[in-house]
Design brief:
Elements (H helix, E strand, L loop, with lengths): L1 E5 L13 E8 L2 E6 L4 E6 L7 E7 L5 E8 L2 E2 L15 E5 L10 E4 L5 E5 L1
Antiparallel strand pairs: 1-2, 1-8, 2-3, 3-4, 5-6, 5-10, 6-7, 9-10
Length: 121
């Protein structure tokens, strides 16, 4: 399961691989993020069973990242925060589920006091 963010530069209604600026999700037993703009990536092994990621990114008044809190099933993930893991010019997100069997993924976005909240379950 991956959520990728970027700008739809070519106007085809989706964020193509070359347009992705940031991605977060679950892949091969690990939670991960990739900040393509900053050329920073990190991952942490997860547990077996159902997965849940809470990704809360706080922004300052200029819409720059201020604080990151990432939790997987209640356990903190010590991902580093980068200054380019949010861009107010992003205009599309792409959700991709891979693997075998029935995908029972749930993705929720919400507007709260923390401007970018991603929940993957």
């Amino acid at each position: 399961m991956e959520v990728a963010f970027g700008c739809d530069a070519n106007g085809n209604g989706t964020v193509d691989d070359s347009e992705v600026s940031f991605a977060v999700g679950w892949d091969c037993g690990e939670w991960f993020f990739r900040d393509i703009v900053a050329d920073v990536a990190d991952s942490y092994a997860g547990s077996f069973g159902r997965k849940k990621l809470d990704w809360n990114l706080r922004l300052d008044q200029s819409l720059a990242p201020k604080a990151l809190r990432a939790n997987a099933g209640g356990a903190a993930l010590p991902f580093p925060m980068t200054t380019t893991m949010y861009d107010p010019s992003w205009n599309v997100a792409r959700v991709t589920a891979r693997g075998f069997g029935n995908a029972e993924a749930v993705l929720k976005f919400g507007a709260t006091k923390e401007p970018l909240v991603i929940r993957i379950r």
